[in-house]
Structures are given as C-alpha cells and as structure tokens.
Amino acid sequence: MKPTALLPRLAAALALATSFAACAQPAATPLRTTVVAKGLDNPWSLAFLPDFEETGRMLVTEKPGTMRIVGTDGKLSAPIIGVPPVVARGQGGLLDVALHPKFADNQLVYWSYSEAAQSGSGNSTAVARGRLDAAAGALRDVKVVFRQTPKVASNMHFGSRLVFDREGRLFITLGDRGSRRDDALTLDNHHGKIVRITDDGGVPPDNPFVETAGALPEIWSYGHRNVQGAALHPATGMLWADEHGPQGGDELNIPQEGGNHGWPVITYGREYGTGTKIGAGTAREGIVAPITHWVPSIAPSGLAFVTSDRHAAWKGQALVGSLKFGQLVRLELDGSKVVREHRHDAGARVRDVRQGPDGHLYLLTDDGELLRIEPGG
User: Which candidate in 157, 191, 342, 344 is catalytic?
Assistant: First the structure.
C-alpha cells in the first residue's frame, strides 16, 4: 500500500481519538447496592406487579426465553407457562416486559421477543400479550399484537422496549437489524423505527403517517439504529429513548411524532474497526438532533427517571444503564437539556434500570443479579 493511501485512515483514526479524549469521563462513583435476587439467566427486563409493596413480586424476563416471578425475598418462580418460542441467538431472545395500564382489572402482560419466520432463516421483533394467572404460573389467551416486517436473517438489533403512553397506546422501539441500516430512512418497513399501536394491536388514528401513501401506519418516528432504552418523561409525558450508535455515537433522543432522527446519514458514530466516517455529518436541517450523545460508546440499555423522595438528590434526573462499562449513567437535566453527567460503577453490565413503587431504584445485570441501589456519592 502506498504511504499516501494511509493518510485518510490515519486522519480518521486521529479524529476519532481526539473525539474520545474530549469526552473522557471522571472515575466512576460506586453505588451502594443490595442483592435482591441472583441466579437469573441473562435477565433483560422487569415489571413491578400491583401488589409489589406488600409482596415484593415482579416479573423478570430472561433472554433465553423464560419469564419468572421474582420476589424481594430472593426467590425465583418456575418459568411461567405460555411464553412463545424465541430466537435466542446473538442479541435476540425474550426482551422487554410491560403491564397494561389497567392490569389490576385485566391482568394483561405484554412482552417483546425475537420471533422466527414460518419458513427460512428470517426473524424479527414481535410483541405478544397474555393474561397472567399468577397462581398457576401461566399466561392465558396469548396473542401476538405486533410483528416487525420484513423478517430478515440477522441476530442483531432487535430493539426493544415497550412503553405505554398516557392514552394507553403502546410504543415499541425497534432496531435496524444490523445489515439493513438504509431501511431506517424509508417508511415501507419497520427497521430502525419506533412504532405506536393500540393495546390490541391496532393503529391509532392520530399516528403521523396514517394518511401517507406507501408508509406503514404504525410508524411514530424513524432514522433510529437500535433503541435499547425508553421511558415517559414524568412531567411532560413525552417518550424519551436511548439508542446504540456503532463505534461511538450512542444517543439520547426525544422521538418526535413523524420525526426523522437521521441514522445512518446523520450520526456521531463511525464504522467499527476502521473508524471511517458514516453518512454526511452530525447535523442537517430537518433531522431531529439528539439531546446528548456518547463518544466513546457506553452501549446504553434501560432508561428511567427519578421521581422518588428516597433519592432526593437525584430527583428529576435521568438514569441510563451502560452495558459496555458496567455503569449507571446519571444525567442532570434542565428541561430537555443535559447539563451534567455522572458515572456510577455497578460492578457488571447493566441491562435495565427501574424505579419501583416503593421509591427504590432497581437494576438488572447481565451476570444474573437484581440489585436495589442507593446513591453512594
């Protein structure tokens, strides 16, 4: 290779290294943690049952394909019967879980998972619901309410978080499936999208693309890469979401109704290994900019807002799990602006973070533990 041929690669590597150095974070502050339960098999998400404050019971999904009831006494139930088969390969498996807003009346549980195609090697994210019969350890009347289309042969970028809005509509965050990044900017597929459906799988009539020819009417926003965390802002009721960039370029967004969030044309990330540029820059008119971004990548996971007086010093702040660094990333906010960031060492890859009905904060880690946390500094 001629020396001049190395110059673009060297320039890209130097620019990337400079960007990384500029975003370097101080040493992580440790958390005070209590192990609530352990022995879970790659847990992915949790949902607090209505009687949590009396019994400590919550639902926990395990990526290989099981859902359990877990108590604050540390006991794990047998796997709940009725969960459909999952494609437990790569980033796929049993993913998020959420309770219907009227769960106390209807006992409906929703979960996302990677679903195989009826034939061939394709797969995609699907969402099912069922009625929880806790006494029998079973899900009844199971129904698939959403399937990401098209299905492709990939073990990457399934998303997927489930969030009910204040009207009872369900947001589902989806990935671009890795090999189909360009699909994220077209409206004839679900790759790299956030969709919004009714609780029975229908299309809300006020979705932004309902009357757009050629567009899938479930789509809420597009131009996403792989959205792994989502939560409603407690004051505004708007959806916030974090997503993985490639080599750098993770983002925290407020997904806009009908908004184009840019991937893969507008991004702070670069190609793996080579560090070469992706797309056309970091901003463009008509593209919704992220609230904040991370270079180097933190590999963001669950997202939660602190509203509890138990954590008065953190109240009003956002928490984001980090898979790459095994941290809880705490964001001080001024409205929709991040004004300061703090890192807290969790001791393992953080897969999900939630605030419980008791006001405590809970983490799930990839090494199979459910933790209750307190500020450690």
Answer: 157
